[in-house]
Structure formats: structure tokens, C-alpha cells
Specification:
217 residues; mainly alpha; 5 helices; 0% strand
């Protein structure tokens, strides 16, 4: 009798070659990685808010109510400026870190910090205000946070690649990579990121002007 040999189907059998997997990993691997890091930060933020002590809750109350009061009384342009500044800060941090040889090791922490802030806000609003807090979060805070997170992930990817190229140019004994081309690519992608960040601030401004009056804290 012929022996039966069990084999794992190769990628070609299920419609994809190994080169296809490598292609998708090269193209989307870092985006996926930074997205996962962002979600890990969100989970940590929610957990911290859920188990926060009275002192932390007091500080979060002060920060939220101050922000809520400002959003309710300031002009739409002030709301836009405040949102743009907040969103731009981490994007700028990722850009600057990418200009260093140790950027590849530090850039993921920027996405982690962004996720932590999003998760902490959501967890606090749920714990402190229940359904009203979550409604405020989903209608006003989350859409802008989502777009700005996309911008940060794209910037983190671009900065990671440049930091990797910079590190390679210093440590490699072979011909140094073309840093001029790499910095040009980084600046072009950063300009797109700034446009997306501005869109996030505009969305935040619009949602605040439309829905902020529905909530009283």
C-alpha cells in the first residue's frame, strides 16, 4: 500500500506565492505593526482609567472639564487651532525621532502614547459619565482622533524607514544609501501627513460646533 504523506499546502496552492507574502509584508507590515501598537496603548489607557484612584480621577476631571468649557465658549477657529496643535505634537515628535539613528527603537512608543491617550479618554468618560460620556466621545472626540491616528501611523512608517536608512548609512561598510533621496521622500510624505492632520482638526472643529451644545457636564 502507498503510504499517505500529509503535507501543508504551499502558498501557491491557495492562490498566493511566497513572493506575494513578502510583498504584502514589505508594503503593509509596518502599518500593521504601528496599528497594533496603537491598540495596545488604547487597551492600557482604558485599563488605567478603569482602575484609577481618586487622585487620578480628580486630575482627569480637571483636564476634561477645562477642555469642555473651552470647547463650549471659544470660537470655531480657536477649536481648530487647539485641535491642530494637539494632533500635530505627536506627528512632529515622530518626525524628529525619525531623524536620529535610534529612531527605529523609539518611534513605536509615540504610537503607544497616542493610543494610551485615546483609551484613557474613553475609559474616563465611560467611568465618570456613562452613556452621556461615551456619546460625547463618539460624536465629538473619536472622529478627529481616528484621522489623527491614521496620520501618525503614516508618519511613523515614513520616519521609521528614514531612521533605518540613516542607521544603515553609518553602520554599513558597503556603499552608503542615498540619503538625499530618502530625506526627500520623508518630507513629501510628511507634507501629506500634515494635510491629513489638518483634516482631522477641521473635522473636530465641525463636530464640536454641531454637537457640543447637546452635552452638559
Amino acid at each position: 500500500m502507498k503510504s499517505i504523506v500529509w503535507e501543508i499546502p504551499s502558498p501557491k496552492i491557495i492562490g498566493m506565492r511566497k513572493s506575494d507574502y513578502r510583498y504584502y509584508m514589505r508594503r503593509y507590515g509596518l502599518i500593521t505593526f504601528f496599528t497594533v501598537v496603537l491598540f495596545i496603548g488604547m487597551f492600557i489607557g482604558v485599563s488605567v482609567a478603569k482602575h484609577a484612584n481618586a487622585n487620578l480621577i480628580k486630575h482627569l476631571d480637571f483636564l476634561f472639564l477645562t477642555n469642555y468649557s473651552a470647547r463650549s465658549s471659544q470660537s470655531v477657529f480657536d477649536t481648530f487651532a487647539a485641535s491642530l496643535s494637539a494632533y500635530f505634537l505627536l506627528v512632529f515628535a515622530a518626525f524628529l525621532i525619525g531623524l536620529s539613528v535610534w529612531g527605529t527603537a523609539v518611534i513605536p512608543f509615540v504610537s503607544l502614547l497616542k493610543g494610551f491617550g485615546i483609551g484613557l479618554s474613553a475609559g474616563y468618560l465611560l467611568s465618570a459619565y456613562g452613556g452621556k460620556g461615551i456619546g460625547y466621545y463618539f460624536l465629538i472626540l473619536l472622529p478627529g482622533a481616528f484621522l489623527s491616528s491614521m496620520a501618525l501611523i503614516i508618519q511613523s512608517r515614513a520616519s521609521f524607514y528614514f531612521a533605518k536608512t540613516l542607521l544603515k548609512s553609518i553602520t554599513s561598510k558597503d556603499k552608503s544609501p542615498n540619503l538625499n533621496k530618502s530625506i526627500k521622500t520623508l518630507l513629501i510624505k510628511t507634507s501629506y501627513v500634515l494635510i491629513l492632520t489638518s483634516c482631522a482638526a477641521i473635522l473636530d472643529m465641525i463636530l464640536t460646533s454641531v454637537f457640543a451644545a447637546l452635552f452638559k457636564f
